[in-house]
Amino acid sequence: MLIEFTFENFKCYRDETTLQMQAVSLDEHADSLIATEARRTLLPVAAIYGPNGGGKSSVLQALQCLCNHVTLPYLVLRSREKNIPAIPCRPYAFDSESREEPTTFRVIFDMGEHVYRYVLAVRNGEVVEEYLHRRKAGRGATATLFERYDGDVHLGSSLKRKRVNTEVDAMMPYLSFLAINYDIESVEEAFHWFRTCCFMDYSDDVIESYYVEPKAASDKQKIIAFLNAMDIDITNIRFERGKDGNLEGIYLTHGTNGDCELELEEESNGTRKLLNLAPIALLALDAGGVVVSDELDAKLHPKLLRFIIRLFTDKRTNPKGAQLIFTSHDMSTLNSRVFRRDEIWFAARKSDGSSFLYSLADIADRDGKRIRTGNAYDRQYLAGRYGADPYLRSMLDWEGRNE
Fold first, then answer.
1. Which of 95, 106, 173, 324 could hold 6 in an S-S bridge, CB 3.0 to 4.6 Å?
2. CA gap 119, 112 in Å, rounded
3. What are the sequence ranges of the domains in the chain?
4. pLDDT at 392 > cutoff 60
5. 3-state secondary structure of 2
6. Which of 145-154, 221-230, 337-346 comes out lowest in average pLDDT?
7. Is 64 helix (H, G, I), strand (E, B) or coil?
8. Would you tell me how many other CB atoms lie within 10 Å of the CB of residue 309?
9. Contact present, 74 and 179 (Cβ < 8 Å)
């Protein structure tokens, strides 16, 4: 489970920026919070709103960039696949000093008995700093597993006893190197967290043409039940493969008598997206993973979006503590019935052009009090109460000049 993600000098973010998944002391939706052995309460969802170009997607891409750096060396060596897509690690481009500085990522995550802190700093493709620490959940001192700086790797006592090699390529994270070459419990546990993070970019139409064929009949039935729960009445999904094993078509059976089978291309955009999303969401809910989705609301009716959010906020469907982090433009979900205030985030630009990220729970009114749950979050946001929306303001000014 993700506790905290911090990054700096990445794309439109110059300064240190933190997405906090540890719950603030608030009264609303307390029954949805994830309790951990470390006596923390974590958020099951985080929704990021903001204008186009404000930096919403870059927050998710920063986390994906970190996960890519850690997992890609392992995936390339194990699968022999050389064309696995990666998010480029681009520093803030609008001042000369930032272009020469490393991009830094810091992540704290909970794995049950242990809490890990991992830091990775990258410049021009090379690792300039890297740290992995862990501590027993709720007690004990923090133990150093390894620290890497000035081109050298320094081992903590547990890895020293394993006599692991400290010579590693400058472009490879040491965590990846250890996961590839050694069978070490602490390394496997930390590396596993990165592998359970799943990224979906629905701003790219290509992602919606990717479908996971369930391996077991029970998995297929779960997907069918998922779609049925969203009022998509199907009784079967058939994946048709050619003699070469390649997928040639997907067919959905409608009607209780199984008398109407439609090819997926004949279904609505929303149905196709849900079939794309269902296996990923169900896998995360089953394993307690993290789903990260850009433009989750694209092509979805607001009621379907709320249903997906509820899968993660309801402990009956999310007993393992899975988390959903997504960007959205959907104003119908921006209210206290769907979210806690600390689950609502805004990305916007400063006057100097760099982006910043903040939570609704961080905003105070003129009297210094927190925004109340009775407020109309959607209307107040669009009115600029939670931070000026330069696009909306510019459009209103433009319309005024042309009347």
1. 106
2. 20
3. 2-196+288-395, 212-277
4. no
5. strand
6. 221-230
7. helix
8. 21
9. yes
